[in-house]
Amino acid sequence: MEKTLVIFKPDCVQRGIVGEILNRFEKVGLKIVGAKMIHPSYDHYYHHYENIGKMISRRGQKAFDVTLAMMNTGPVIAMVLEGIEAASLVRKMVGATEPKSALPGTIRGDYSHMSFGHADKNEIGIPNLIHASGDAEEAKLEIAHWFSDSELFDYETVHQKYTQPRK
After folding, report:
1. What's the number of domains the chain is made of?
2. Residue 33: how many CA atoms within 13 Å on its side-chain side?
3. Where is 63: in which H helix or E strand?
4. Whether the Cβ atoms of residue 71 and residue 14 lie closer than 8 Å to each other
5. pLDDT at 35
6. In which domain, by residue range, is 78 found?
7. Catalytic residue among 44, 47, 131, 159
8. Coil, strand or helix: which one is 47?
9. CB within 8 Å of 13: residues ≥ 6 apart
10. Using CA atoms, how far apart are residues 16 and 31, in angstroms rounded to an integer?
11. What is the C-alpha separation between 127 and 71, in angstroms, rounded?
12. The CATH number of the domain where 100 resides is what?
């Protein structure tokens, strides 16, 4: 099974909609194998967004700075979800990075609305609720950065327990 990282960003935590969004992941059959609330340091975010995500080289220093400023407005909830092709499934469910462009039915399309243009004009980070690993390889790097092996759990869900053939 594939694992992926999801971070419920400060705007999601502050709006009190983490449970509602998490419910969508659970309903589709993804399994939570790691979870914690954390208020990461600048260095932690730097490693996540630049060393792994290459944000400065992709989007520039200004975008990086406003993103880190927004991420430091409060705690986040980091989770590792597991399932079949979990990284691509979660990305599809989350929707486009720019909330204005996210389709209805996606998390960002249903719960956020800001455009890149508005955020850039006002020099603010875009409140788009959630971070999701870009692909399975990025997920491996991100999970290793956010979680130790002892913080990840292997267990059988009730669905697995009662739907798998007995040996």
Report:
1. 1
2. 24
3. helix 61-71
4. no
5. 98
6. 2-163
7. 131
8. helix
9. 37, 74, 75, 76, 77
10. 21
11. 9
12. 3.30.70.141
CA distance 24 to 22: 5
Q: What is the pLDDT of residue 101?
A: 95
Q: Quick check: 6 and 25 in contact, CB under 8 A?
A: yes
CA distance 68 to 87: 23
> What single-letter amino acid sits at 10?
P
CA distance 62 to 124: 10
Contact criterion met (CB below 8 Å) for 91 and 44? no
- Nearest CA among 11, 131, 156 for reference residue 70: 11
Active-site residue, 131 included: yes
Query: For each of the chain's 167 residues, which pLDDT tens digit applies?
Result: 999 999 999 999 999 999 999 999 999 999 999 999 999 999 999 999 999 999 998 888 988 999 999 999 999 999 999 999 999 999 999 999 999 999 999 999 999 999 989 988 998 888 999 999 999 999 999 999 999 999 999 999 887 777 767 66
Amino acid at 80: V
End-to-end, the C-alpha distance of the chain in Å comes to: 20
